[in-house]
Specification:
This protein is α/β, with parallel strands linked by helices and 273 residues long. The protein has a single domain, classed as Rossmann fold (3-Layer(aba) Sandwich). The chain contains 11 helices and 7 strands. The chain has a 7-stranded mixed sheet with strand order 3-4-2-5-1-6-7, with helices on both faces. It binds adenosine-5'-diphosphate and magnesium ion (MG). The site of adenosine-5'-diphosphate has 17 residues, from helix 1 and helix 9. May play a role in septum formation. This is ParA family protein. Belongs to the ParA family.
Length: 273
């Protein structure tokens, strides 16, 4: 397939927005698939108890399957949980099972509860290097729609935050709280963390509102916002029920083209990272 530019070092990106239904999971899996199709090695961590990213990537995530829950709560290594995506052998996935829904509470009483995911990811990347395995180019962490301990773990793990924004009326509401949280984490837990990327999702250029919201986002976040926005596309929403990303389900659909273009843009603006 087409070849994307390899980053100088592994880029670890947390896909977050405490609003539900804005396209976090869709963005995570389709960017990951695009990057993998472009020849890069990708690790997706499904950090949402709903396990939607695991479903969309065709990954077994029945209760009891080694998952991010065991990594966070029981100290299992990432190597013991990864599964390769059936579509792309160079796309690895740490699944989420329903067991993760208890983790938010179970983590509270554990030592170093905020740094558990980071340690696991750092160890995994180092182990691969020591074993002479190909370097992971991109790690994408899909987050639940909340700012609890699971999302906190993702923020401590990532260097970059990718915020999907749905172009609708309340799009910017809640964004300031998200940015405030990121600032706090920067100050106390992860000085490297910053918002590197904003992606406009489910964009409908025919409506004034979407156009207005998009230009407002670009006004505030000119450098962070990708030039490519993702259009609303039925194929994008159908793909998960086939256990596929739209990248392989309907490669020529507008949604697939947009995600591939967004991925290419992401790889080319590493300097901004
Ligand atoms: P989140 O992870 O933020 O909760 P999702 O990625 O699950 O959001 O998206 C919410 C819903 O919107 C899902 O049903 C998904 O299939 C749909 N969706 C996301 N992006 C698009 C798109 N570009 N076109 C059509 N439907 C989309
Ligand atoms: Mg989701």
């Amino acid at each position: 397939g087409r070849q994307f530019r390899k980053p100088e070092k592994t880029r670890i990106m947390t896909v977050a927005n405490q609003k539900g239904g804005v396209g976090k999971t869709t963005t995570t899996v389709n960017l990951a698939a695009s990057l993998a199709q472009g020849g890069l090695n990708v690790l997706v961590i499904d950090n949402d108890p709903q396990g939607n990213a695991s479903t969309a990537l065709g990954i077994d995530h029945r209760s009891g399957v080694p998952s991010v829950y065991e990594v966070l709560v029981e100290g299992l290594s990432i190597a013991e949980t990864v599964q390769a995506c059936p579509e792309f052998p160079n796309l690895l996935v740490v699944p989420a099972t329903i067991d993760l829904s208890g983790a938010e509470i179970e983590l509270v009483s554990l030592v170093s509860r905020e740094t558990r995911l980071r340690r696991a990811v750092d160890t995994y990347l180092t182990e691969r290097e020591e074993q002479g395995l190909p370097r992971i180019d991109y790690v994408l962490v899909d987050c639940p729609p909340s700012l609890g301990l699971l999302t906190l773990n993702a923020f401590v793990t990532g260097r970059e935050v990718l915020i999907p924004i749905q172009c609708e009326y309340y799009a910017l509401e809640g964004l300031s709280q998200l940015l405030k949280t990121i600032k706090l984490i920067q100050a106390h837990l992860n000085p490297d963390l910053h918002v590197s990327t904003i992606l406009l999702t489910m964009f409908d250029a025919r409506t004034n509102l979407a156009t207005q919201v998009a230009s407002e986002v670009r006004e505030h976040f000119g450098t962070e916002t990708l030039a490519t926005s993702i259009p609303r596309s039925v194929r994008v929403s159908e793909a998960p029920s086939h256990g596929q990303t739209v990248i392989s389900y309907e490669p020529s659909s507008t949604g697939a083209l947009a995600y591939r273009e967004a991925a290419r843009e992401l790889t080319e603006r590493e300097a901004a990272a």
